[in-house]
Input
Amino acid sequence: MSDKTADLSGPGISTYEEVARALPTDYRSPLTPMETMDALFAAKSVIETGLCRELNLKMVQVPLIVSKESGVNDMLDRDGSRTPVEFPAGLGLDEPITTQVVQAATKWKRVALAQFGCGIGEGICTDMKAVRKDYFLDHDHSAYVDQWDWEQRISEADRTLAYLQDTVRHIWSVLVEAAETVTDLYPVLADGYPPIRPELEFIHAEDLLAMYPDLPRKERETRVLQEHPAVFIIGVGWPLADGYPHELRAADYDDWITATTTADGRHMHGLNGDILVWNPVTKRRHELTSMGVRVTKNSLVAQMEMAGLTDDLALPYHQAILNDEIPLSIGGGIGQSRTYMYLLRKAHIGEVSVTVWPEELTTICEERNIYVLR
Output
């Protein structure tokens, strides 16, 4: 049995020897760098327009930096391993503002729903940029992150598995539309690759564990994607039958503790999940988005207690939830570069985004005809 605890967070690759084994050896990009940019921005337009149409959202501005004391920054997980970039800001202030570069806009968006006056069934979408300095830099993780961070205000009655799944279907339909758009623009993208299916499979993390009880999380995902190349895994964060969560998930945004009942009457937990696809270029699992119904004041307290983070309940963001000052919502972050990489048949995320890479990695890539943007 592989060590399951080592697979609860992080990318799953931790050495460049592993990266070298993971990258394809027979790769040729179907598009030139400029064609890639052309297709990328075509997909971006379709996705932003489609998300706003399907989920009743409006594009809004989003912060790059937030104050530390607000508690608004996304900590990404609950083991404290991914810390944000932090610096003082405010020339001339007696006490400069302690500022953090966002890691995602997960919490800010929920507050922003009230700021922008969104009613139930309305929401916002952002073109979010972030820095995650504590990632291992491999083929699909970089220190620079771009996401369509979106959030929709909902009612108490909408906090159901059915509403979550319906929202996922709308998002998937937009990604399929974008795939069709870029393939029409560059038919070579279809050469040798299966078309992206119009439907994806829903599976609860508990069921996935039952299918592969001895495998750690990423290997379970890899196995199921062999049969179903696009899946939404429900219930990420709650401890499963083996005592481990499918993956560590932050305790103060997605609701992974709420009890649910499946369509066939089984009792589960969690109102969140991830869309994963099989990448036919890298021949690996490929995560596109995490999303979920957000915590209520009751589920927030329960999850923070489980995570051992009750001191953070005193932060302004958490107090706003506890005092019913911000709306109930559902939301998520769709990785832009991850999506472009998938749609444009790329082997490396650096082919669709410009950031920094270690020389060791770029050398490995160039030996395989993979040329990252710098």
